[in-house]
Amino acid sequence: MCGRYCITTAPEAIRRIFRYPQQPNFPPRYNVAPTQPVPVVRVVEGEREFALVRWGLIPAWVKDPKDFSLVINARGESVQEKPAFKNAIRRRRCLFPADGFYEWKAEGGIKHAFFARPRDSGPMAFAGLWETWLGPNGEEMETAAIVTTQANREMSTVHHRAPVIVPPDQFDFWLDPQIDGPEASTLIRPAPDGLMEVYEVSSAVNKVANDTPHLIAPGTTEPPPERATAPRPSRRKAEADTGQGSLF
């Protein structure tokens, strides 16, 4: 599975790689967590676009999101049949730009955090699905989930599941809404062996509030305490303060 990831490449470099016309500006994030707004790339009306959506897919048929479990990952082997995903896999596929992701391994009753990233240290793209949920009072929410599959050789030492990584030459194929779900699903497979490096990192990633480069440094030492800063003016109490923060 994938429950935390990072996106640290500069916005303009991400834009060049994913070829969307928008020019968003966003800071590096080292600890992106579920329910936060996350960047995705998708095709709408024949054009690629950058969009911010909530990480945690809500199908259009859900009546009340509060009664629907948080779905941050879509199991690739069953996306064609599962009610939550079978519509999105047909026409609403997206890419999650990312520079790496975290996974946890339980040993002796303790969960150790690991970080996985491409060996060339460049950004990558997770296969994703997105949906638009419309509420009874006209409210609208766009959401997405990361598609997962069996782990490759490197990741299998930590966990048996991993995000589906779409190679750049297959971006168009995955995003094209004219390509049906079964055909697009041929890309749902483990990453090639040797593509990733995986190493243990500090358990500081367990705390969502921690969001510094120290999180992806090899080793298990805790980061130095952050210096106190003057409180920032509230923005409607940080948008009702979900405890998850904001990408921007």
In short:
The protein is mostly beta strands.
Q: Would you give an account of this structure?
A:
The protein has 248 residues and is mainly beta. It has one domain (4-240): hypothetical protein yedk fold (Alpha-Beta Complex). It has six helices and twelve strands. The chain has helices spanning 11-18, 88-91, 153-156, 171-175, 181-184, 236-240; strands at 4-7, 29-32, 37-44, 47-55, 73-75, 93-98, 100-107, 110-118, 124-134, 140-150, 161-163, 196-200. A five-stranded antiparallel sheet has the order 2-1-7-8-12, with no helix packed on it. Strand 3 (37-44) and strand 4 form a beta hairpin. The longest helix has 8 residues, at 11-18. The model is unreliable at 228-248 (pLDDT under 50).
Fill in the keyword field for this structure.
single chain; 248 residues; mainly beta; hypothetical protein yedk fold; five-stranded antiparallel sheet; five-stranded mixed beta barrel; 6 helices; 12 strands; 33% strand; globular; disordered C terminus
